[in-house]
Amino acid sequence: MESDKGTTSMEIEKVQSDANRVSSALKPNFEPLKAHEISDGQVQFRKVSVPPHRYTPLKKAWMEIYGPVYDQMKVDIRMNLKGRKVELKTRSDTPDISNLQKSADFVHAFMLGFDVIDAVALLRLDELYVESFEIKDVKTLRGEHLSRAIGRLSGKGGKTKFAIENSTKTRIVIADTKIHILGSFANIKIARDSLCSLILGSPAGKVYSKLRAVTSRLAERF
């Protein structure tokens, strides 16, 4: 019986190794696509709208935005004054087609209100995202209740917002009733939970203590 079991296990291992060998042989090995190889060599475009309140900041920070996009990502960028849009397109020497989308995400993050220094991380790191939601998505508030909720999110002198940003390694923009969070997927979730607790009426001290517990668990995990 033992010899039969040994023979069976050997046969199973042989079948598995043969299957792995066949699957690796059949697996296609594609080379990375270049920008000019996509869509029969057609140029790819992206357009990012400029809100009225971000027009002046864009003019001031234009060279800080233009440099990384044109020099590092090898993507052409220009401002369409008539359409009030930032236009981006691929070049013949664009190394990767994803650079175009990264550049568009970078410009869009700046339009949402993030600093150029923070938004530029979208060009350099792959696992970063921007998530947006409104206070009314969490709880329907009006008048003074809404004003107090926005005040709780920021804290005195922005203290609460900075505490959440530093502990979760994210960046938060509170634009009236809209909230934008820039960071990794897991960190965005922690920051969003903290902000939702504040909107629902939790005192800042309770949110701080919960944040400390969550961040210490994250530190242990890594």
Automatic annotation (TrEMBL):
This protein's UniProt keywords: Nucleus, RNA-binding
Amino acid composition bias (Polar residues), ranges on this chain: 1-10
Record-given protein name: K Homology domain-containing protein
Domain K Homology: start-end pairs: 127-200
Region (Disordered) location: 1-20
PANTHER family: RIBONUCLEASE Y, RNA-BINDING PROTEIN PNO1
Recorded family membership: Belongs to the PNO1 family.
Matches recorded under Gene3D superfamilies: K Homology domain, type 1
Pfam families with a match to the protein in the record: KH_PNO1_2nd
Database matches in SUPFAM superfamilies: Eukaryotic type KH-domain (KH-domain type I)
Cellular compartments per GO CC: nucleolus
Locations listed in the record: Nucleus, Nucleolus
SMART domains named among the record's database cross-references: KH
Molecular function GO labels: RNA binding
Record keyword Oxidoreductase present: no
